[in-house]
Amino acid sequence: MRTRDVATEVIEDAELIEKYGVVKEEIDAFACTSQSQAARVGRWLLYSNAYESETISFTIGIESGVVLRPGMVIKVNDQTRAATRLSGRISTGSTTTTVVIDADRTVTAGDDLSVVLPNGLVETRNVSSYSSGTRTITVDTAFSVAPQQNGVWLLTTSTVNPTTWRVISVGEDSSQGIHGITALAYNPGKFAYVESGAALQTSPISILGSAPAAPSNITNTENLYADNNVVFVKVSISWNRVENATSYRVRYRVNQGNWVNLTDTESVQVDIFNAPEGSWEVEVYAISVNGNLSQSATRSYTVIGKTALPTNVQELEISQVDDHTAQLTWPVATDLDVLIGGRVIVRHTPNTSSVEWGNSNDIISAVSGNQTSAQVPLLNGTYLVKFEDSTGNRSSAATTVQVTLPQPQPPLAIFTYNEDTTSPPFQGNATNMLYSAELDALILDQGTLFDDLATDGDFDELGSIDQAGDIGTFGEYEFGSTFAFAGVFDVDLTARFVTNVYLPGDLWDDKTNLIDSWNDIDGSALDRVNATLYVRTTNNDPTINDPTWSSWQPIINGIRRGRGFQFKLAAVSQDNTQNIRVEELGATMTLQRRSETSNNLSSGAGSFAVTFVNAFYQTPSIGISGQNMATGDFYVLSSISRTGFTITFRNSGGTAVSRTFDFTAVGHGREIT
Known about the structure:
With about 675 residues, this protein is mostly beta strands. It contains six helices and 42 strands. The radius of gyration is 50 Å and the shape is elongated.
């Protein structure tokens, strides 16, 4: 039973009723004597139930824990709730007006920067500028002291603020050097709301509900790739990562066609395979965690793809193979559509000036695009090379090399092998081969032991014992001697061997029946034997023990380099009834004629020794041209050898004098050093 008058004041919050429905709660306000006072109590109850039900707990270091007390208001950056990082640790190099932060963030002039100072107190200053390269924030008013390294910084921006809390308890753990903090959600606008019913002002504490910024710096690259030996175009589109974006959406269209939507991606790059050439339009959107799309970032560009011209041949070199053939070499093509399905076009013109691709002609058939060399006829003039891709596009400019051939000089034959004319013939080392005096030829050994030939013991009745038994499939014959130079030379090699094939036992003298009964007077088709002449070289002195030899290489008439040379013949038979008959076998080694010239040499008043840049094979002929000779002057040559000579100029009285002279030495071979 009430013993005093009671008045009732109803306070409602339409927004909360709409959100939760009508929730009725009564409170008796002790010592409340006015309606306005009752209204304040009601608004306090509404606010407390609606907005002061959230607490947080966390630990901090001793530097801040020692200054926190219950009732203090603090600001907290919850990166998960805010969907962005607004705080961190201070890096080295900070001053009272500049703060170096530990990560690059989006900071604009007008934001507020709060730092924990060395004394544990927090000071806030307005940002005047930010350098992302050095992660340095400059404030408009200096802090009382410079923040120390590893101190805490906190940003308040126009788009997102840290949350505000009132400390309700502080607990100390001295063993760990930390403090445990518990705080209650706090809004400084609650006092105006309770006192006068003013609308509550809330700050943006998260960007989850807002659309992310549009991506920036869209770039595109294109490359060629191969699939099943077919070349396609790949377009890669990339952009800068957007803060608060969890994924990205990309779409494109070509030549104003339909838009093609790609699958959303978390990466900041997408690759489009088998991309068509043409004019491209690309749009990229950032997507937030709750699916909000940013404004589109756009870019237009042209994809050239396989319509691009191949790069030019970077270098072109030519080397002589023999008197009639040269080898062109160039670096491997860098364009995939040249390497796969492309070609290398080789042309020639006799001109050495005013050279144009159009006034040249193909000198050989185009070679595969993955080749780096080709043999061409050796001609005076200019060789031109271009790459051609799989669609027929050619390099924009031809790469050239010019050749001016010297007048032909007779070579010097230094040695000729004639293995078939020695006495006895073929004195070298034979493996599975032997010399048949009956055939006067080198043949494959037929591998039958002598004791097995006459099974009845009557050897007088045997015919040819060289041709008995089955024919071996392979045999070798190494020439009887090794040729040795005094040094390393480039030598022209010319092979000479004449072979024939025959059927043992198919000779006329071996047939006993009448000729009219022979099925084939010419014998069977004999095409299952073959022979190849090989050479190997060494740059060592072949007369020493264990020189290092190259592998055996087939002799294709041309130039080989070495100090020592060995030759061998390899013979094969793919039919044990057919044998090979090597009737002639040899090789010729020749050296090209060359000259060496030097000008404006000063002899000095004595003997002057000239050493050739490259020694000749044998002593060359030497021509001297004196340039400042006086009447009666003469010169004397001495110590003439393949490596040089000595010259002495003398006047008419026989006294050595200094003169300027030129010389030309003409001989054969160039020793390689």
